[in-house]
Records
---
Amino acid sequence: MNIRARASVPALLAALALGLTGCSGGGAGDAGDTITVWGTWDMEDEASGMAEGSVALREMIEDYEAETGVTVVYEHVPFDQLFSKVSLAVQSGGDVPDVVEVASQEVFSRPDVFRDITAELADAEFVAQVGDAERASCVRDGVRRCVAVNIGSTAWYYRAADLDGVAWPTTDAEWLTVGEQLKAQGKYVASFYAGRDVAGVEQTWAPLIISAGGEIFDADGQPAWANAATVTVVDWMRRLLMNGYIPETNFTGDFAAGEQPFIDGAAVGLRGGSWSAQFVPQLSEGLASGEVLVGAAPSIAGGPGHVTLYGQGWAVPEGAANPQRATEFLAYLMTPSNQAKWAAAAFRIPTNALAFEDPAFAEVYAENEAFYSAIQEQADTVGITMPTSPCYTEGLTRLGETLQELMLDVEADAMAALSSVQDEVAGSCR
Amino acid sequence: MTSILRSDVAGPGAPRARSGPPEGRSPRWGWITVGLVAPAALLTVAVQIYPTLYSFYLSFGTVSAGTVTPVGLDNYRWLLTSARFWQSVAVTLVYGVAFVVITFVLALALALVFNTQFRGKAFYLTVIFVPWILSEITSGVIWRWMFLRDYGFLQELLGPLFGDVTVLATPVGALAVLVVANVWKSVAFALLLILAALQTISREIDEAARLDGAGAWRRLRSVTLPLIRPTLTVVIAFMAIQSVNAIGMVMSVTEGGPGSSTEILSLFMYRQAMDFGKLGVGSAVGVVMFFVNLVFALTYLRALNRQSELGGR
Amino acid sequence: MSHSRPTRTLALHLLLGGTAFLFIFPVLYVVLVSLRPSGEGLSGGLVLSGFDTSHYETLLSGQRFPRAILNTAITAIGGALLTVFACTLAAYGLSRGDATRLQRWLLNAFLLLMMLPGLTNIIPLYKLASDLGLLNTYTSLITTFGGLGVPLGVWIMKGFFDAIPREVEEAAAIDGATRPQVLVRILAPIAMPAVLANFLINVVYNWNNFFLPLMFTTQSDRKVATVALFDYQVAYANTQNELVAAACVLIMIPPVVMFISMRERFMAGLADGAMKG
């Protein structure tokens, strides 16, 4: 035993030495002409709904490499890990990528993680070409921290045929009456994801709370969700759930569980997003043929029915090895032709006005005009962006958990629960 | 008779009465000992001691962009006034006790059964061992599937028994599933340790006791169990540690839900540090966990050492 | 002896059989799901509706999964070797050394270390690894795995070394054997079952380890199998559960096979743990 062990010591030391001299691959090699990009698109995916987007992204990267001679090292990181991995890397001074795919509200929830790129991109072409929505999502207080290639918004879809003589409900009261009618036919009004995490709150609860006149964070970013509006929304949701107008899996399941009843036909409507066509089979065909329509978001207590807007795009983390090349890459992704290519492949709406005229996208737009114009109109008129806060993630997570608990235990005192969690999060919100 | 009962019968873990270097060794033996222990010690310092100390340091500060800003006891103060922290502590206690008790009883019972003679022992043992061989994420995926609403057959089976409830959507149900899943996974290891200890008990002692007229139950209580007490103690210690660190299953099966009702302490710590970016607070929780574990560990160490003194020279 | 032996044996086998079935059936379930045709996934309860092995082909013919398995193998075995090496030396020293007070202190320290919440260490470990430029390398994982297995391993090994009476070494020494010869010819064979058991336990723990590799690797070609499974689970939730199930089964196979084939040694090692005094 000992002899064998002794023989392995030199081998071990050798391996250690090799590792330490950096035979590790990846990371900042020659910082001059290499950038590392982290994205949620899986380059090896050929089958899923996201495949076309991955292909488009790969092509854009290859073209960029050919044009500029810069080497782009792309790493696929799943969407639920990406943000925390980047944050961890920046916080602990680890291996920081040069470019990261982001959603705009994430960027501003942790501004210390993302670089101020206002100066580098001040003269970029796209700046004049993008609309207000892009600026609203990626520029706050004059500081730009990301570029938004498209604006995503939540959307309510429904199958017209299933509504058998009834109109799509647009107010809280209508939801209850229509709910009763659909229940008689054995259907739910809608399935949606209202789970106990940040996304659930951002996509479902927040627009409703704001519609009812409430707020989630106040002007200083402190938790402020314990208000009458939130309680109103909770009560309304409870009524829907208790009467069986919406399935329980909306609150207990994951994203897929929020879509499944609609896919199966058990639910007439779906609260998804402008991105849903990639995840819900047959949705884009349905939209093109008019079988599926975009409906208005529910209005609570008389306020407008809102949709949540996200800027979906890219940013440069603090501590990136090659910020210069990184911002050049961002500008490249924002050109009209690339935006058009991307929007067509990933079924998204470009932020660059000139992209609409680009043939790559114009055709797709024409085929789906009803969908696009409906989404855009909603984004323009009733779109809201999430507020920023130093405790954004913790706040929304705890709020989401509390809301889920309130839905599962319908007798619980909503205001008390909301206040208690609000106070708790506020205690370390700085 | 007395000499047999008092002989150094031991399973792994109870120090032998006569350890120490063989006679006639060279005076450099002391240095050799140090040299022998060095690699293990080095690894341990690098991988366990240094990080723990660093966590202590982090727990007194706020971490942002790689720099640590000292904030004294603020993190701890926040923890002590945080309702969710205390809820997490309570859940961990309930879960821990349930897990340890059930695993221990099951493992002991099975070990006693396996300690008898019959055919096919190896087969049964292997089968019971398989869950231990699985990764926590694999097991988590499977258990989650079995309890999915509308698809999971265990959900279909058990839901109707309790008024068509979604098991994982109730705090009690979710915790119960976690306990069961973790017991399922861990019994084999405890079983093996106890079995090994049982098998080191000389047949003669058992025979002697039986000839003395002691019935099966009496033999168990007064002879067998006391003899393997050190191993039993260590098994309980292991299970206790596992329950505190059991983050993998929780993450895959319930993710702390419903609400935050199954957010055991390890998950609470992970979320504070990774999801919410509060490395300082997360480290503070880790420090608290460390001290709790320390208390367990010291208690068991004392029990172990006392046992060795009793059984000893 | 006992009355009605056949009944008793039957009852025993029923009991054990039932218990064994309870333990194994989630595994059978996931195998079942992995063999279902695409799209059927979890629906249909426990019915064996098909025998479609295409998911396995998809996984194994792709690039990513085989690579992930390779990475897992390298880091798991490497880490276990490191642990066994360090533990065996240390246990021998602690068992046979003459600095008894130091020894006891060290032993207690190791026992204590087993009880540290491993999670707290992830952040500092991550920082250490990235400061040394060791992220996305095998070295960082192997070293960390190696270190994590030390406390338990030392404890197991020391128990076995203690169980070997000094007389055995003394007799060999009297017969003229030098210390290294004693170690190799006498102690090694006796301790081998324990060494193997230690090795096996560590390989299994390392193979199944999830969080550490998740933190330490971002590059796809360095990911280990458990992390790859996690990715699949997220990406294919409810769309291709059969694929996820197949991945589960594939990840399960090596440790199970290892365990079954080395089972006798493993159990013999534990069972022969101590020799009578």
---
Amino acid sequence: MSWRRRNATCVACTVLLLACAFSLAAQTIERAEALWKAHDYDGANAAFKALVAAQPKNALARVRWGNLFYERFNAAEAGKLYEEALGIDPKNAPALLGEAQILADNYDPKANDLANKALESDPKLYQAHELMAKTALEDDNPKKADSEADAALAIQSDALEAIAVKASIDLLADKQSPWVAKIGNRGKGYETIAHFYMINRRYEDTIQYLHKAIAATPDLWSAHSELGINLMRLGREGEARQELQAAYDNHFRDSVTANALTLMDSYNKFVTTETPTTALRLNKKEADALRPYFQEEMQRAMATYEKKYKFKLNKPVQVEVYPDHEDFAVRTQGLPGLGALGVTFDNYIAMDSPSGRPPGEFHWASTLWHEMSHVYVIAMTNDRVPRWFTEGLAVHEETAASPDWGDRVSPEILAAIRDKKLLPIAEIDRGFVHPTYPAQVIVSYYEAGKICDFIVQKWGDQKILDMIHEFAKNRPTVDVIKEQLGMEPEAFDKEFLAMIDKETGKAVAGFADWTKQVREISQLAKEGKNDEVIAKGRAIEGNYPDYVEAGNVYNFVAEACLTKGDKACAMDEWGRYSKIGGRDPETMKKYAKLLQDAGKLKEAEAALERMNFIYPIDPELHERLGNMLMQTGDAKGAVREFQVLVALHPIDAAGSHYNLAKAFQAAGQKDQAREEAVNALEAAPNYKPAQKLLLEVSGDEK
Amino acid sequence: MASPAQMGCGLKFLPVLLVLALTPAFASTYIVTVAGLGGEPDYEQRFTMLANDVDKILRTGGQTDRIVETLKGPDATRVKVEAALNKVAGQAKAQDAFVLMMIGHGTFDGMEYKFNLPGPDISGAELAALLNKIPAGRQLVVDMTSASGGAVNALKKDNRTIITATKSGSEKNATVFARFWVEALRDPAADADKNEVISALEAFQYAEKKTAQFYSEQKHLATEHSQVDDQQHAAAFPLLRFGSAAAVANDPAKRDLVAKREDIENKIDALKYQKSLMAPDDYKRQLTQLLIELAKAQEAIDK
């Protein structure tokens, strides 16, 4: 991220050279820039504003003003000014470069198009070559990156970013690089190297090079901020705060720095529970409710992966769970890819809390297992693993843990398959870093996951392990595919796509018709034509069984069954919905009730237990599950559920303490039962069942 | 009735217990529910359904002390609302209670609140004039419409508790409070103090919490903030009795036992008030002892 946030100075240099051509403007621009340099940003802004008002046709002034905004962390305003400059002078090279830079900051592949346009306007604009060198290296295309860096150096022999890219190419391949020495005392060059380490998830190396950047240029505040962020990622919070604060105090106050400091201030609202192998940081307001489930899943995932990957971690895994998505977002800012639910930095995992998203939208356990897989793969390869493989394996592990976990095939994915947008395995990393269409990151996760499924199906789990060990040697994807799978990447793609076609062909081909028919079913449901809803729904649900989101066929059919009074039919339908991965809590609660009424208590329990992995902060869920566990004689399970219920501070406080007291009593824990009965009665002294229970468990005092 | 513990105010609320104890158990409660104009089929259906639910809940349980009237759909006109309230005004006595529940849309133009009805609307001031004619000594208005907070000033009166779905007239979006208010009337969990009586305050707190939870879960900005103008009176306003509480309330022979029980309850309330000043173990020991005494007293009542 670093070079993206700080590149305005390079753009500024270009503009200064061109400024000579505009002597009248230059004097004012210089004045504005003098203020800018003196950190009088308001003064500089006012000077630029006055200049643009006086000279409305001065494109250069707008570009320069835009650069001020860009450097002061306001890309939106900068972009507007570049656009205005291009309105005056459509071929203005610095404006095109400025726009390219903003796009590159967001990993938008269109940045290259604009950089090329800038070069058409000014073939000597070596910074455009530098930008393209960086985006190529981000795409894991060192050959193109090297060639673009050479092009920049041919124009400007000491072009710093080009040198840094060439150094990064060597260093990422674990080679000594003669280019590092050429950076000399120019801190920004080391900062660029750190950026490439960071996007390759090599955080210790990132930190090392940011230290070098600061040693070379102590007032490079962007590097201080970046160092703080990366130290925070690895849990070194004391050092992180120092660096972030230094950046902030020296006017480097972008949202990343400010938000990171705010987040660190909020850590006193969190509580950490440690075991010899884990540390779990939860917000105090939900810690008691989430802890039992998170801890159990952390231990279960670690035991599974330890066996599967034949590898034992040598340090504890820390999981941080954020109820406020914005806090979590601080952890992922500047990283390429989705990072929408969880993120892993070596042995540190940060993720959304189930309370951070609407019920049913987020399978937290699936995300936790996904991230835990990263911890192992990153440790086993010492961070040397292509993005597609670690993400694909993590996606594979979600459904390996339980088939109803993980994400279902979404309409966007079907559309991508239909439009033949899945990338060849040799290029798949590009889909994660520089997506060319909005859903490409999601499609790339799906594709990478399916590739790992395919490898496991055809070659077995051991092959995945062999590939991990090969990647650990810093081998490129193409070589690993050839050697480990014994086939050319193109041949692999062909076989893989055949499998995808077998799995999804029917849904892809029939998607348009399926959509039309779902609309018809919806209309039939509104008209109360239940028999037709059931017949039509059952006829088409197999065409796209993965669709379990709002407006799914399973629900239309089940509701129609219920309206007809046919509970068995509804149960059957929601059984399929649950098995395929449907996760709407209200639907699942209705399904569990039907099962319970039909005397299928164990199945009802299982249906509700599934919801603990999705939305465990629903008091009703724990009350119902706890009561069911009491009925089936699982007092220990009931204690857990009612303890969580109490922790959620339900409306019925007395009732929840009473339930817990009953569960303790059933589990033979008389003292705890008594204490909970007293807690229930403290809230509601006249609560008769609790009074009766208190007298029962009070022994001699009675 | 909510105990002082639920309201978090300790002894300050002891008079509430007294108020309730002195409330004539055999007085009548007149309840008028009005589901106003939906405007759109979805709202029309929702409002009518909620009014039907309220009506059904109030008429269940065979309590003869409740006189219920529900106006909904095309029947919820201003003329019929006026007629219903005038009828109560003609029948109710000073010892009776009166409840008006309003479901639907409301508007507030900065000066005047209006409850939207089929045909002409009715303003807050007009409603107040009708309510003022009702002699019932305890009144409760539950205005669950959008902008209902704008009605408070017009409706305010001694011995009239006002609950609104919004904190002011400027919260103009359709509300969800009514849905949870109705849920409170049928969910035993709303009876927070487990005395088998759902008080107006308990129903309010239930609906308030569920409404907040609704917006939080959906990750939507909350566009309504319910309020009650007088918690003390709301706590002393029994909305629904169920189970043995209904029978006890109707049985003069149990009054002495109930008084003994209330004496222990008062001691428990006093102890809770001292909680922060006591050593935790000592508090727990004394509380447990009193709770055991109370449990035994209750056993005697139930024999």
---
Amino acid sequence: MKITPAIAARAAARRPRSLQEGTIISLTTLTHPLAAFGNRPRTIALIRLEDGSKSLASLTAPGVIGQTVRPRMRLSHITEDQLRMYDVSYEPLALQRVPEHAPFPGYILALTGPSGVGKSTVSRLLLHACAEYVQNVPILTTRARKPGDEGEYRYVSKEKFSQWLEDGEIVAVTKIPSQDEARWYGYRARDIEAIWKKGKVPLVITETHLLQGLANHYSRRSILSFGLLPPGRSKRTMLSCLLRRLRQRGRETEEQIAARLDVAEQDLQFFQNRKDLFDHLMVNDDLNKVIDFLKKKVPGLSA
Amino acid sequence: MERAVSLIGFGQTRFGEWWGKGIKDLMAEATNAALDAAPCTALDIDLIIVGNMLAETLNGQAHLSALASTLLPHRPPALRVESACGSGAFALHTASAMLESGRARTVLVIGVEKMTDASADEAADALMGAADAEKDRPSGITFPGIFGLVAARYMHDYGLQRDELSLVSAVHHRQATENPFAQFRSEISPETISKSPLIADPLRLLDCSPISDGAAACILSTAFQSDLRLVASQIATDALSLADREELTSFAANRDASERAYLEANIRPKDIEVLETHDCFSIAALINLEDLGFAEPGEAISIYRNLYDGIPGTLAVNRSGGLKACGHPVAATGIKQLIDTGKQLRASNSRFGMAHNFGGVCATCAVHVLEHLPS
């Protein structure tokens, strides 16, 4: 069939819709395409675009099913009338290497929640009740000691932190900007593995970035992950509960508390968006209930 | 069925490359054979329905109804039906509707295609008319490519191996050796099929049905009786383009048409003993067996493995050789399938047989069930 200017114009009008990334549903390579499409093998794929629609289009290079592709304008073919026809062709993106996880070494108990929700209190009670089974993993930090810190941090110089990071000793890391300089936080593999060697379960009191880092390094299945939420039915009541607790704690200025609440709001969103990173979500309205729940859900503690 | 419709006569040309015969010659040969075999005379035909897809593009010939009508001395009324590769069976369905309504009493149905006058490239381009011209064509895809997409996904989802897929064409070629009307009457080993040139990865040359000339004709009647009764005639449709479908490895039109046909004939898949199915590409035969209820999804290859190993009790699939070995003169295929179903029911003295024909990538599908009632 000859492509007339009217047909080409209709195709051009439809083109903007196909300028999206997509995923290959299936693909084939025609060894001898129709003469109108040139004499080189042509790879054609059925692609699911980001908006959910599907498109049948050529690929710039062979790919595999499931691969991500990105649109490119490309010379499609030259017609009998020597018209150079350009059309959208999709370029398969480089395949990402699946990270090779370390073999399953044991598990890590993780407790994640916004500041002020009561993580430290819960962990203190848990460590007190189950000291034989659970041990806290120190958080490495480059920030200076502050009054109100309760021994959960290990203070290291920035030089040492970056040295460890370079040596691959630090398995999860996050950077929190503050007024004067960025502060680094992280976990060291050595600290976690030493606890395993003792036959205990490492407990990390953590936040969202470090939790993701640990899951990437040790694999998600190595982490028994609990999320701790403030009481309240809506985000608004949860946040006002946190505000009350932070003020009661009386460690920070109103300005710092406001900054913490901003982060807390993001954290609450994170619980919603990354449900996959949590095994259990708990509401901290009664400390005893939370500890009982933890004991019931963590193998070894209930016995 | 609203009335008892009998298949009272049928005939066909051998499928192949016929330099010396045009469209009208092919139709005449099939029609004469059908009339010779029928208990009626030419003058009893009160309607002709012609199935054809490509005459305008490949032969410069439209108006096939009038052309067909002049084959008979009394020039009965005639019309033409087009539904891509399913044109033959859609012509049968139209005939059946005419008979059931009482508008006609004896109908001659002809399927004809004359494809080898054109180059392979022209034929492949013309066949793309069965896909979506604005969604599919600009990508440069062809029908082997469309089924290549289907096959690649099927192999990905169900782990079907290339060597297993080769059993399909091997079985069809072996069975065609007994069919005098088949285009290719030679056995081909699965190894040869696996090594044939790549056409549309993963499909190879010997996975694809050929380009053929041929015609098939049959006479359906409510006025005359025979031992072959049409007990179901159902059609269904689906989106033209794969881009508008939910799934690649099963065809909705297949499922819809066959479910309706089972209901109309009041039978179940296990009652079918003879099946002629639309294997335009080897992968299609597997998907059809699953959609028509003869195998679970992903498991149809076991039927072909049993056929290849000659295990008795296996469903008789495409004893004619299928589209692969018989040839595939597009619109003639649907009629040929009904003819072969009838012949095999008689030969094996079985009761129910199914002819399953589809157009494009199963955007249209027609299923007919024949019941054999030996007197």
